[in-house]
Design goal:
The protein is of the alpha+beta class. The chain contains two helices and twelve strands. Helix content is about 30%, strand content about 25%. Strand 11 and strand 12 form a beta hairpin. This is Signal peptidase I.
Length: about 240
């Protein structure tokens, strides 16, 4: 092949490569920015100020909570809620009972019971009973019974048993459902729905789209970096080819 033919072939190759790299960057920007917009529409960031949800959520951790209507909440969900009886700030607790449930603790094995059925709670802090203090409550219709995962260091429905409504809060108090830990880096992960609640009436809720959103953002970043890298790589190869020629 003559040198002029080689140059034309190389030129067409570089043009095609440049076009594809530009397309990759453009698509990457759409995915990257679209992922953040998607997240901003569905999720709210919260900082957990206390140790009451440890070890599931450590004090100071940042979480992503999907905006949710109270009617969508199921047992086992970790929710962000605000109730004037509990205070003026949003709080984060786990739902263990819904309207009509009879909640009690503890069995001889130290377990919480819902309607007489013991519940396995592997997310609890420590290896002691499900509550250091025994209690019983019947959840009124339209209400939620909430406990922290660190039962010996959580001000939750047990503290409010005498405040009315058996320590529960209305479903309308729920602002969002926690779907993932976002910070610190070592704790990032999607919240798993406790399987022990799946067999109860109503089952458990389905995870929000936090994983697809994360994949969209990562894919967009990869396309942007890959497309942007084409130019320098192509120029380096062209200089090397010229030197070899």
């Amino acid at each position: 092949m003559s040198s002029s033919t080689q140059r034309r072939t190389d030129g067409r190759g570089r043009t095609m490569g440049s076009t594809l790299s530009g397309l990759a960057v453009a698509v990457g920007c759409v995915l990257f920015l679209g992922g953040f917009v998607w997240a901003a529409v569905l999720y709210r960031p919260y900082t957990v100020p206390t140790d009451s949800m440890s070890p599931t959520i450590a004090v100071g951790a940042r979480v992503l909570a999907e905006k949710a209507d109270g009617s969508e909440i199921r047992r086992g969900d970790i929710v962000v809620f605000k109730d004037t009886t509990w205070g003026d700030l949003p709080m984060v607790k786990r739902v263990v009972g819904v309207g009509g449930d009879h909640i009690a603790c503890c069995t001889k094995q130290g377990r919480l019971t819902i309607n007489g059925k013991p519940v396995e709670e592997p997310y609890l802090h420590g290896h002691g009973p499900a509550s250091p203090v025994g209690f019983k409550a019947t959840v009124p219709t339209g209400q939620l019974f909430l406990l922290g995962d660190h039962r010996s260091d959580s001000l939750d429905s047990r503290v409010h048993l005498t405040d009315g409504d058996q320590g529960s809060v209305p479903r309308s108090a729920v602002q969002a459902r926690v779907d993932a830990r976002a910070w610190p880096l070592g704790s990032i992960g999607v919240m798993q729905r406790p399987p022990a609640f799946a067999a109860l009436p109503g089952g458990i809720s389905q995870p929000g789209p936090v994983q697809p959103i994360a994949l969209t953002v990562v894919a967009g970043a990869a396309l942007i970096l890959g497309g942007a890298a084409y130019g320098p790589v192509a120029r380096r190869r062209a200089r090397k080819a010229g030197a070899d020629g």
